[in-house]
Amino acid sequence: MCRVRKILALVMAGALVTGLVGCGAQSEKSEQETASQTETNETEASEEASEEADNSTSESAKIPAYEYPGPELFYSVLYKYINDEFAANYDSADVAIPIVNIIYQDESNKEDIKVYGDFWYMNYDLKGDTLECVSGGSYPGCIHMKTTDEGYSVTSMDIVEDGSNYLDSAKEIFGEHFDDFEKVSSDDDAREKVRAQIISNYVFANDLNIKAYQDQGWDPVTLPEQNIDSFYSILD
User: CA gyration radius for the chain?
Assistant: First the structure.
C-alpha cells in the first residue's frame, strides 16, 4: 500500500514538473512571437514612411523648370532673365515661376529696348496637386535689352530701391510712366490674376496635374483655364 502511494506521489510530481516546464516554454514562445510581430510592424511602418518620402521626391522631381510657353523669343529671354537673376537670393524649391506685369515697352532703339514693369520672382514646392509658395519677392524696374544675331539679350536692369529711397528711385526709373507703375503695383487683385494665368499656362504647357497655388496662411487659389494663344502678344 505504501509502495502504491509512493508511486502515485512520484507520478503526480512528474506531471506537475512537466506542466511547469510546458507553461514556461509556452510563455517564452509567446514573448518571442510578440517581439517578432512588433519588429515586423515597425519595419512595415518604416517602409511605408520611406515609400511616402520616395513618392513625394519622385512627384517633385517630375516638375520641369519654368520656360516661357509663348512663341516670342523676346519674352522667353525676359522671363528667363528674371528667374536666373534672382534665384541666388532664395533657397532652391521645386520650381520658380516669375510674375511679369509689363507697364510700358520702348522699342525705339533696338540697341536699348526698355521694358518697364512690376517683376516678381516666386518659388514653389509641389504638395499633391497644389503649388505652395515658399519664397519670393518683387523687383519693379526697367529691364534693358538689345537685339543680337541669336535674337535678344538682357544688358542690365534698373531696380527700384527698398526703404526710404523707394519713391525717389521709382520716379527716377519710371519717369513719365510712374503713375502707371503706381496703379499696377498697388492693384493686388490684377497681379494675382496675371500670376494665376502664368501658372496655369505653365501647367498646361507641361501637361501637369496641378489644380491650384497657395500662399502660406491663405486658402488655395484654383487655376483658371489656360490661354496661351491669347495671353501672350506677338511682337512686330
Answer: 34
Domain ranges of the chain: 1-61, 73-231
**How far is it, in rounded angstroms, from Cα 67 to Cα 98?**
10
The rounded distance, in Å, linking the Cα atoms of 203 and 195 is 12
Sign of the dihedral through C-alpha 21, 27, 32, 33: positive
Distance (Å, whole) CA 13 – CA 131: 76
Q: CA-to-CA distance for 132 and 101, rounded, in angstroms?
A: 21
Burial tier of 178 (Cβ tally within 10 Å: 0-12, 13-18, 19+): middle
Q: What is the pLDDT of residue 33?
A: 58
SS3 of 40-91: the string is: HHHHHHHHHHHHHHHHHHHHHHCCCCCCCCCCCHHHHHHHHHHHHHHHHHCC
Q: 3-class SS at 131?
A: strand
Name which of 59-73, 104-118, 149-163 the model is least confident about: 59-73
